[in-house]
Design goal:
Distance between the termini: 77 Å
Strand content: 15-25%
Order of helices and strands: HEEEHEH
Oligomer: single chain
Length: 110
């Protein structure tokens, strides 16, 4: 729309038309967001990691403990790890969780 009408009644008509179009577009966005959210809810959850490596606090965030994936003593600083990464961390001296004992599960007894 390049030119607007000069008189007030037609300007009000244009404004009302644009408000209606905006409301229609907002309803379409809300419906699309709901469809997307429903699709996300339908997806099965990803399987939990088999092994977790807990990182320390601060600069560098070095590994401080290795856990089995379902351990109840994990914290927010845990990241998923593969079996080889967990084995390597234990071999390099990172401590094993005393509750879930990943060293036993990995066959790396002390």
């Amino acid at each position: 729309m390049s030119e607007l009408p000069p008189d007030l009644p037609r300007l009000r008509t244009v404004v009302q038309y644009l408000r209606n179009e905006l409301a229609r577009a907002e309803r379409a966005v809300a419906a699309a967001e709901e469809r997307e959210a429903a699709a996300v809810r339908r997806r099965p959850p990803s399987p939990p990691a088999q092994w977790l490596i807990e990182r320390g606090i601060g600069v560098g965030r070095l590994p401080v403990r290795v856990h089995v994936g379902g351990c109840w003593d994990t914290r927010k600083r845990c990241a998923p790890a593969g079996m080889e990464e967990a084995r390597r961390a234990l071999a390099e001296g990172v401590s094993a969780c005393p509750h879930c004992r990943p060293n036993v599960a990995l066959g790396m007894l002390d």
